[in-house]
Amino acid sequence: MTDRSVTHATFTLERLYPATAARVFALWADPKAKARWFSTPDADHELDFRAGGREVNRSRPDSGPSLTFEALYRDIVPDERIVYTSVLYAGDDLAAASLTTVEFCPADGGTRLVLTEQGTFLDGREEPSWREIGTGDWLDALGAELGAGEYG
Q1: Strand pairing of 44-47 and 93-107?
Q2: How far apart are CA 27 and CA 33, in angstroms?
Q3: Which candidate, 66, 39, 78, places its Cα nearest to that of 55?
Q4: Among 38-42, 69-73, 111-115, which is the least confidently predicted range?
């Protein structure tokens, strides 16, 4: 029998990056840059970064079902704010749905990024702690990307 459960959770993560808000924001807006820090080399990643635009990341882990993340951008204020809704599928099963807000705040010598996610996690297919850890990992990867190439 399938675990029929609903878990609601909210978390906020903060990172301080030694770069301007425009530079940090650019790594979200540029499809090639976003794929480098958000996706994996073997995944299919698409990004249409505009209000009403869509992002899709399809990965095929070595074990377990394929994972599909799909986001719809609801509000974008350049260098200040991004708001999107998203779903995560494990195979054909909906695992989670969420609302995420990303804020870019000036800070001494750089930008403080504040990400708040309000999620609904379904049937034990994803846990809030897994999402929080994974999101923290890709925010760290964003920081590493800031230190490389034209955005560093």
Answers
A1: unpaired
A2: 6
A3: 39
A4: 38-42
CB 53, CB 67: distance < 8 Å: no
Torsion on CA atoms 113, 118, 120, 125, rounded to nearest 10: 20
Residue 150 confidence (pLDDT) = 42
Four-point Cα dihedral 57, 59, 116, 104, nearest 10: -50
Task: Tell me the pLDDT band of 148, cut-offs 50, 70 and 90.
Answer: low
Q: What's the whole-number average pLDDT of the chain?
A: 92
How many angstroms separate the CA atoms of 93 and 100, rounded? Answer: 21
Measured CA to CA, the distance from residue 30 to residue 58 in angstroms comes to 18
User: Is pLDDT at 124 greater than 90 in this prediction?
Assistant: no
What is the spatial distance between Cα 85 and Cα 75, in angstroms, rounded to a whole number?
Answer: 10
Query: How many Å apart are CA 132 and CA 134, to the nearest integer?
Result: 6
Give the C-alpha separation, 2 to 89, whole Å.
16
